[in-house]
Every structure is written in C-alpha cells, then in structure tokens.
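User: Could you check the structure of this?
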Amino acid sequence: MAEQLPLRGRRIVEVLATSAGGVGTHVRSLVPVVRAAGATVGVCGAPATEELFGFTRAGADFRPIGISAGLAPAADSRAVLQLRRALDGADLVHAHGLRAGLVAALARRISGARSAPLVLTLHNAILEDAGPLQRVLRAAERTTIRGADLVLAVSSDLAANARRAGARDVRVLPAVAPPRPPATRSRAEVREELGVDEGRPLVVAIGRLHPQKGYDVLLEAVARWEVDDRLGTPPLVAIAGDGPLEAELADRIRASRLPVLLLGRRDDVADLLGAAELCVLPSRWEGSPFTAQEALRAGTPLVSTRAGGLPELLGDGAALVPVGDAGALADAVVRVLTDPAHAAELVERGRRQASTWPDEEGAARRLVAVYRELLGAPGTGLP
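Assistant: Sure, the predicted structure tokens are below.
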C-alpha cells in the first residue's frame, strides 16, 4: 500500500531563475502535489515569476531571489546570500535549470542546509558556439552538474550530456504541459481578430522570441511560400511570444514585407491553435516543449524540427524536418496545407502519441517518489 503522506514533515525548496514560460509553469504544477504528499513547499525565484505563475496561490511560501537567466557575477553573489537564508530548514533543494542550480549549490554549501540533497532538473541545453563566454558556461555547467546529488533531464540528449559532464545519478523525467483552459472563442472570431481573409491559411508559432527558437529560419521559409506555385494563397503566420529578438524580427518582417504578425505574449493559446491550419516549431533545440504537447493534444497538425528531445517526445505524431533547413520546413508546411489526407493523418497520429504521455499530476507524483527515495521514510531519515 502506498504511503498516504510520503513527505510528511519535510520542507522542499524549489529554486528557479527568471522564467516566462515552461519552467515556471512546471514548478507551479509541482506545488500542490508535493504539498498533498505532506511537505511544506518553498519557492525561490525572481519576483516576476511570482506575478506570472502565482506560486503563493498554489500554496507555496515564495521568497524573492534575483537569479537571472544569464551570467551576472555581482547579481549571482547577492542571490547566493539571499538563497542561503531561504534554505534554512530545508530537507531537500530542487533547482530548475543551470543558473538556479549553480546558485543553489553555492548557497547550500554555506547554509544550514548542507546535508539537504540537491536535485537539479535540466530543462535546456547550452547552444553550441565558440568563444570565451561559451567556455565559461560549459565550466559552470560541469560544476553545477557534479554538485547535484541527482540530475533529472527532460530529454535523453540532456541526460547523455550530464553523464559526460560527470553527474553522479541521471534520470530522464520529461516536463509535462499542464492542461490549457479550453478555447473561449470560435475559429471565425480569432481569424477576424488577426485579419485573416476567408480561405487564407493561418499558421501559428508559439514561444519566446529567442535565438533558440529558430524564428529566423521560419521567416526564410515564409519568404519561400510567397513565391511557391503550389499554394493558391500563401498563409498568414502569427507568432505568439515576446523576448529579446522582438525588434530584430519586426524590422526584418517590415523590410521584406512578410505576412507575419508578432502577437506578443498571449494567454489564449487554445484559441490560436483552434483557429490555425497548423502549428510550426522551428527550434534549434528543445527538450520537452509545452507548445508541441499542446498542439498535439489540440489536434492541430505540427511541423517541427528534429531538435533535441523532440523526436522522442513526438514520435510519428508530427512532421519532422532538419534543424536550420528553411527549404525542408517550407516544403513540410506546404504539404500539410495542400494535402488534406496528410494533415488528417498527422492529427490522428498526434493525438495517439499524446495519449502515451503521463498527465501533469502523474508526472508530479513521480517526482514525489524521487524526493521520498532521497529523503527516506517520514520522521526517520531512512529508506
């Protein structure tokens, strides 16, 4: 018989850096399940993450810690000192991402939580690039990975990299997208808002405007559609997300007069997916992206790159193309738009693939079992 409260009397502290998307959503989804297992939960992260994700409303004790998404030595030093105080009384520390992991490892070393196990979840990869900064990031990655008692990776390629970096214990545990609220507007209403003419296809992309997401390749593919005789009417592309590339992408869209809308950050993803002929994910790397999961669950055909953990996540449920290949991306989209039987097959295979994924609560319960394994039985410190 399973323990009713496997984490009774424990204090679990979840740590994350600045996040505007998947990592913050994932951490919030853990809070109620970990609390239901008997633990008290602390969440330490940037103040903006509390505003976006509402950890306190989910039942966590939130402490603002300024952990940035990029290297910032002065800010990191302050974050280590802030986190050191927040870790007092912690039985287990779980850091999400390398930035949070590095700060948590240093804070744990100088705090009263030195004996608390450190779990590190790897959500993202360091994109390949030569140069001094890349070498610094790789060194920080090795230090952080080796400092963790357990490394959880959202994809097999991240797990393999952690083993090469010297991790003691590595396991694959994909991040599961929580259910989205259902669409609140009809397909026609969304298309009218976006200015999509009758009979014109709508293609959506959802994700942060960041180099990792490959939107430069998507824009190159859009330029190819504009002169493709196979398409009666080239699609309108709507990109939902914000981020550091917004101005650069907007300038390129204007200069080339591309039929692309930058929608900014949206909370109506279900509406957008329901109104679109297909969703496109042109990323240079992904682990277990929520966008791909949401598209397959919604029954929206997905065209994606084969980056990172996408092949193992998507199986045959999406049309997969090589990373950085604008021609292959354009051809795959054209086929979906011009071959109804192919589009319908992708929808069917996508829903079948989505049915194999654990639900959000099931994934959180797996993590509770990991915490219980590391901490032992409640009140004993023993397995």
